[in-house]
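Troubleshooting: if your tokenizer reports a length mismatch, compare your output against this known-good record of 158 residues.
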Amino acid sequence: MQKIKLAADEFLALKRVAVTGVSRSPKDHGANFVYRRFRDRGYKVFAVNPNADEVEGDRSYHALRDIPGGVEAVVIGTKPETADATMAECADLGIKHVWMHRGPGEGSVSPTAAAYGREHGIEVIDGGCPCMFGPTADPGHKVMCSMLKMTGNVPRKA
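Known-good structure output:
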């Protein structure tokens, strides 16, 4: 395991990223915020929602395997009970970087998904938000990161 900042830097250096759990009803939905932030910062970002063909004015894919050309990394922004299946799909597709989103609440972190991913050679960040680090960060998320490290919602290592 490596320090969270290094893991985040490696993840954010990748430019083809899928975000699962992007909602058709974006109000205050964390996955939608992350999706928009990646899109606005120049990433080639793909929304994944099995129940939507379009979100945030962009095409949405029903599964990771449906994304043409694949992706280098995945942000899981769904409920934790969905993370296990997503992590298995990442392993099947050879995706080596996964971030399970978590802010102040429960978030998308599944300990079983994290363990499975690591057992299958995936670099897993199990908590925090990509918007707390590097080129996707903003001042509010940076402050939140410092506070959530104390509660364990942002891991110190990944």
